[in-house]
Amino acid sequence: MKNILILSLILLCSCNQIAKKKNNNYDNNLWVFYHVKDSIPKLLNNNISNANGLKIANPNEQFNATDNLIDTLPDKQLVFIANNKDKWRLVYVQGGFGKYFVLYECVIKNDSIFNLKKAESVQAIRDMSVFDKVISK
C-alpha cells in the first residue's frame, strides 16, 4: 500500500511538470479578462482596424447583429479581451448577414506587435479552451 501511494505521488508530480512545460510560459489560469472596448491595446487596434477605426460595441451594447443595418450602430460587438504576460487575445462578434466570431491573438513587447493571428468561427467563443481549438486551426 505504501509503495502504491509513493508511486501515485511520483506520477502526480511528473504530470504537473509536463503540464507546466506544455503551457509555453503562458499559464491559462493567469489570463486577465477585460470586457470594455477601451481595453484593446492601441497596437492591436491599429493593426486590425480600417481607416475609420475599429467600430465595436461593448458586450452589453447594441450593434448591427443582423442584416437590418442601423447606420449609427457598429457592426461588431466585443466578447472579451484577455491578457497573459505579453500575449493578448481579442474576440468579437461580427454582425450582419451570417453572424460569426472573429478571434485575434498576438504578442505585444516593447511597443511592437508580433505573431498576429486571426481566425473566424461560427462556433461561439466564450472561453479559452474553445479559443485554443479555433486559433490552432
Q: Could you explain how this protein is built, in words?
A:
This protein has 137 residues and is of the alpha+beta class. The chain has one domain. Helices cover 27% and strands 29% of the residues. Strands 1-2-3-4-5 form a five-stranded antiparallel sheet, covered by helices on one side. Strand 4 and strand 5 form a beta hairpin. About 8% of the residues have low confidence.
C-alpha-based Rg, rounded = 19 Å
Record the strand order, biggest sheet.
1-2-3-4-5
Fraction of helical residues: 25-40%
Q: Please give the count of helices.
A: 3
Shape: globular
What's the main sheet like? 5 strands, antiparallel
Low-confidence stretches: 14-24
Listing every helix as H and every strand as E from the N terminus to the C terminus, the arrangement reads: HEHEEEEH
Question: What is the structural class?
Answer: alpha+beta
Count of DSSP strands: 5
Mean pLDDT: 84
Tally of individual domains: 1
